[in-house]
Amino acid sequence: GAIVVDRRSRMYYGATDPLPKYMESLYGSFKAASEEHLQTHIISELELDENQLEDFAFIMLPNAACLSEQALRNLREYVRRGGGLLASGSTSLYRTNGDIRDNFALADLFKADFKAIHDHTTRDGRAELLVRRKHPITDDPIIEQQKDVAYPPDHPLFGRMSCACMVTEVIPREGAEVLAEWCTEREPLSRKPAVIASTFGKGKVVYFAASIDQFYYTYC
After folding, report:
1. What is the pLDDT of residues 22-33, one digit of tens each?
2. pTM above the 0.70 mark?
């Protein structure tokens, strides 16, 4: 697989505060891949633009906000032909100059439409993640160990996993399989998609609306 390091996202989306806005997600993805002993390569936005993707079984886009039009076309064709894509946060939400789009450029792959961005990076305002259904992605012993079972089973926060991270509020499209949802402790019944799995052509896509990669770097 490949993890994309996007200079434009660091410079124009990260701007004067690149560590929390971009680099933390990148570092978290690299940390997770390394600890799982996944054979991954670091590639730049230039390799996306030049479509040097055929050797990879999957591509990771950690908060890659500012992708070029050529990179977007190449990624869409890569997934359509059978590649795997993992993306998080504001991926494809901005143009290469840092201007925000009306929607994700890859909304058709994510099966989700952009609504808002929420900052839940503070200790007192974390995003509460709740697994919605059994799936190979969520059926994991480490996830089970991290679930908070202090609440009674009928409580809306039973099984929560508190994550201090940026969260992108999205509206799922038809074909979106919502694997996990997020809410806040103050509004436990107001749940929104946190992890969405979908297919596009012959390929598979997982979109993390909650930037778990950022949380993994800063807290794990």
Report:
1. 999 999 999 999
2. yes
Tokens 């143009």 — which residue?
A: 95
pLDDT-derived band of residue 134, with 50, 70 and 90 as boundaries? confident
Here the tokens at position 129 are 């993640």
C-alpha 191/C-alpha 128 separation (Å) is 9
- 139 phi and psi angles, rounded to 5 deg: -85, 80
Q: DSSP per residue over 145-199, as a string?
A: HH-B--S-TTSTTTTBEEE-EEEEEEEEPTT-EEEEEEE-SS-TT--EEEEEEEE
Q: Give dist(CA 143, CA 80) in Å, integer.
A: 30
Distance (Å, whole) CA 213 – CA 195? 12
- The one-letter amino acid at 94: Y
Run of H or E residues at 115: strand 112-120
Q: What mean pLDDT is predicted for residues 139-160?
A: 91
Chain centre to alpha carbon of residue 89: 5
Q: Rounded to an integer, what distance in angstroms lies between the CA atom of residue 62 and that of residue 69?
A: 18
Please classify residue 42 by burial: count the beta carbons closer than 10 Å to its beta carbon, then call 0-12 exposed, 13-18 middle and 19+ buried.
Answer: exposed
Q: Are 24 and 119 in contact (CB under 8 A)?
A: no
CA 164 to CA 123: how far, in whole Å?
7
Q: Is the pLDDT of residue 140 over 90?
A: no
Q: Return d(Cα 137, Cα 54) in angstroms, integer.
A: 24
